[in-house]
Write a structure and sequence with these properties.
The chain has about 130 residues and is of the alpha/beta class. The protein is built from six helices and five strands. Strands 3-2-1-4-5 form a five-stranded parallel β-sheet. Strand 1, helix 1 and strand 2 form a beta-alpha-beta unit. The longest helix is centred in the first third of the chain and has 12 residues. The radius of gyration is 14 Å and the shape is globular. The structure holds [cytidine-5'-phosphate] glycerylphosphoric acid ester. The site of [cytidine-5'-phosphate] glycerylphosphoric acid ester (C2G) has 16 residues, from strand 1, helix 1 and strand 4. This is Glycerol-3-phosphate cytidylyltransferase.
C-alpha cells in the first residue's frame, strides 16, 4: 500500500484544498493529512483560523480522498511522521517548493510539489467577504 502525507491549515475549506488532496491521493492508496493545530497556527504561522482544529478535522475526514487526520504541532515533526507512518510520498503545494526537500534527504520518501490552484485562498475569501 502506497502511503502519502501532506500538511496544512485547511481553514475555510475550498476547492483549491480539494484539488490538492485529490491529486495527493492519486499518488498512492492511503492519504494522511497532518492538520495544523490551533496553537501551531497562532504561535508559528500567525494565523487565527475561522474554524477550530476539531471543526477543520471533521471537514477533512468527510473528504473521500482523506484516510487519516493527525495534528501538526511543530515545524519539526515531518521526518518523524514520515518514518512513523511509513510514508512513501510527501506532498505539498508548490508555494512550498524546495522548503521540504530535506525530507527526501532524511527519509526514504519522495517529495512532490503540486501546482497550487490559482485564484483561490482563505485570505482571498476573507477579503472578498469583507467588501460586501
Ligand atoms: N493549496 C493549493 N491551492 C490553493 C490553496 C492551497 O494547492 N489555492 C495547498 C497549499 O499549497 C498546501 C495545502 O493546500 O499544500 C494547504 O494549504 P494551507 O491550509 O494554506 O496550508 P499552509 O499554510 O501552506 O500549511 O508545515 C506545512 C504547513 O502546515 C503548510
Amino acid at each position: 500500500m502506497k502511503r502519502v502525507i501532506t500538511y496544512g491549515t485547511f481553514d475555510m475549506l475550498h476547492y483549491g484544498h480539494i484539488n490538492l488532496l485529490r491529486r495527493a491521493k492519486e499518488l498512492g492508496d492511503y492519504l494522511i493529512v497532518v492538520l495544523s493545530s490551533d496553537e501551531f497556527n497562532w504561535n508559528e504561522k500567525g494565523k487565527k483560523t475561522y474554524f477550530s482544529y476539531e471543526q477543520r478535522k471533521q471537514l477533512l475526514e468527510a473528504i473521500r480522498y482523506v484516510d487519516l487526520v493527525i495534528p501538526e504541532e511543530s515545524w519539526n515533526q515531518k521526518v518523524t511522521d514520515v518514518d512513523l507512518y511509513k510514508v512513501d510520498t510527501f506532498v505539498m503545494g508548490d508555494d512550498w517548493r524546495g522548503q521540504f526537500d530535506f525530507v527526501a534527504d532524511e527519509t526514504s520518501a519522495e517529495v512532490v510539489y503540486l501546482e497550487r490552484t490559482p485564484e483561490i485562498s482563505t485570505t482571498q475569501i476573507k477579503r472578498d467577504l469583507n467588501q460586501e
